[in-house]
Amino acid sequence: MLFNPRTYDPAQFDEPTRRLLRATVDWFESRGKKALIDTYIDRAWYADFLEFAAREGLFAEFLTPSAADPDKRWDTARIAELNEILGFYGLGYWYTWQVTILGLGPVWQSENEAVRARAAKLLAEGHVMAFGLSERTHGADIYSTDMILTPDGEGGFTATGSKYYIGNGNVAGLVSVFGRRSDVEGPEGYVFFAADSRHEAYHLVKNVVNAQMYVSEFRLEDYPVRAEDVLHTGQAAFDAALNTVNVGKFNLCTASVGICEHAMYEAVTHAHNRVLYGRKVTDFPHVRRELTDAYARLVAMKLFSARAVDYFRTASPEDRRYLLFNPMTKMKVTTEGEKVIDLMWDVIAAKGFEADTYFDKAAKDIRGLPKLEGTVHVNLALILKFMGNYLFAPADYAPVPTRLDAADDAFLFRQGPARGLGAIRFHDWRAPYDRHAQLANVARFREQADGFCELLLKHAPSKEQQADLDFLLEIGQLFALIVYGQLVLEQAELTGLDADVLDQIFDALVRDFSAHATELHGKASTTEEQAAWALANVRRPVADAERAAKVWARVEALSGSYEMQP
Ligand SMILES: Cc1cc2nc3c(=O)[nH]c(=O)nc-3n(C[C@H](O)[C@H](O)[C@H](O)COP(=O)(O)OP(=O)(O)OC[C@H]3O[C@@H](n4cnc5c(N)ncnc54)[C@H](O)[C@@H]3O)c2cc1C
Q1: Would the keyword Plastid turn up in this protein's UniProt record (predicted)?
Q2: Which of these, 173, 303, 328, 424, has the minimum number of CB atoms within 10 Å of its CB?
Q3: Does residue 133 line the site of ligand 1, with CB under 6 A?
Q4: Nearest CA to ligand 1 atom 41
């Protein structure tokens, strides 16, 4: 189930893809663990990795859509695969690639042929890109940009202002920068333009983080923005920002999976070989329980992410279901990643602090993913917009198959206006639950999911509660579990997942639902009826010692099955 560099053969992809993925794994393995660890600790910029990627044409091959080069394609399935590999070796390697994706978003969505050609050429030459949206004082409030463009009277502008938290801002060949015109009020004044970090009016201020990756503050001083540098104007610039984040934030789930996988090999191997009081640490029942839980949660992260790829790739103006599954990958899979690391760290304790492990880096870096590309709150608030239609108004759609085909996901760069989310319809969430009703914990979770519908119908949040984001976010957490379970089941079916592992996953989901129901019970604004509902819907998972033992055997088998080349 887990990515293992020792046995890795991405046979599901075409030959050039396979070769590049394998070459990436081989590069990390032959460079070795000592270099990986030392450069992390020294916060050394990973020029050698970028040289490798440039030499192999890795980013150019994976990140140039067919519209820019008919011999290449933007293929979310293989992009997801590379996320996992890069996360497996470290967040920093993933991040430089991730912000290149973000930087390319406004370019590939633009009708400006000259910049598109420039970006394709820069990629082919091995450059990375950057995405200049965030500013120090404005956080998620991107409406309030202080990057000001003043018309120069010749169809262009001069841009002045600062950007903060901009990855690759130290080297990017192209930086997509978001700002607003000095002479136009409101949304019509937004502009997205392409800047060059090597230009003399581009001033790199500093790296704002204490890490190997470079997350820059930069300042533009009268930076000349020529007409041919303008990517988008007005509302389209704002939509391009949101649609870019839609494409980009999808990458966080598989990065999180990769981080957890590497950490799991280390954790299980350590615990299984450590002997205390004359017995293996993994003989303790609580240790087995924690590692089994971590494993089941990690498998669920993989299943959900993989299935979300299919909806992403099948998206069209008529099928925008990906707009729910995408923030789900972002807030749910990445927070599950935190739980997986927490569970394992509980077991390996002091070992998880040691400098020469991957684990201590994973323990820090896994925390970042839920916070980037919109926080958990922002994504939960987004997910809530879909709840009514998802639960109560299913629609007919043709079945979505597994999408590993070598297609170009062109729709991602013509997603159109970012509005109208509340009108999006979904296929019937109950169908995969019904098909797995024979599994005890799926059936039990289904009772909770039906109970949730009852809560919304009989004790719907009042007007005041709908304005109370603290209350609503808890509702969002309960809802998110139902969506999570649905795609996990769909993917389990498509891949023939072992029934014991699937039941173990739903053992965790039942407990999670109960935990969130208890949280809801404790909220100040929860009514008596809602509180009574919450307690009535706390359920115990169905225990099964034989099932747990079978899943544990899978976890145990991970011990010693992978250690990075020294
Ligand atoms: C390591 C790192 C790398 C980054 N790389 C880039 C990059 O390359 N390019 C780039 O443009 N940006 C980048 N960012 C910025 C990142 O996207 C911001 O952190 C993010 O937009 C949130 O801003 P903030 O962290 O300042 O939180 P704030 O926006 O200040 O939020 C504060 C709190 O308010 C809550 N909140 C805000 N809005 C809402 C809402 N609408 N609904 C509910 N709750 C809300 C948040 O959840 C949070 O708890 C990076 C950040 C980091 C730390």
Answers
A1: no
A2: 424
A3: yes
A4: 378
User: Mean per-residue pLDDT for 342-368?
Assistant: 98
Instruction: Judge whether 159 and 147 are in contact, CB under 8 Å.
Output: yes
Q: Which helix (H) or strand (E) holds 175?
A: strand 174-181
- Alpha carbon of 373 to ligand 1 centroid (Å): 7
Site of tokens 């909770």: 448
Task: Provide the token pair at 227.
Answer: 């007409």
Band of the pLDDT at 140, cuts 50, 70, 90? confident
For the chain, list the domains and their CATH numbers.
15-127 (1.10.540), 130-234 (2.40.110.10), 250-393+427-556 (1.20.140.10)
Map residue 293 onto helix, strand or coil. Answer: helix
Is residue 309 a contact partner of residue 76, using CB atoms and an 8 Å limit? yes
Residue with tokens 């590309």: 373
For ligand 1, whether the C-beta of 147 sits within 6 Å is no
Task: Indicate whether 418 pLDDT > 80.
Answer: no
Tell me how far the alpha carbon of residue 135 lies from the centroid of ligand 1, in angstroms: 9
Supply the residue whose CA is at minimum distance from atom 45 of ligand 1.
378
Q: Do 264 and 340 contact (CB within 8 A), yes or no?
A: yes
- Per-residue pLDDT band at 142 (split at 50, 70, 90): confident
Asked if residues 446 and 503 have their Cβ atoms less than 8 Å apart, the reply is no
Instruction: Give the model confidence (pLDDT) of 205-216 as tens digits.
Output: 999 999 999 999
What contacts 153, CB < 8 A, 6 or more positions away? none
Specify the pairing of strand 190-195 against strand 174-181.
Answer: antiparallel
Query: Which pair of structure tokens corresponds to residue 475?
Result: 């509702």
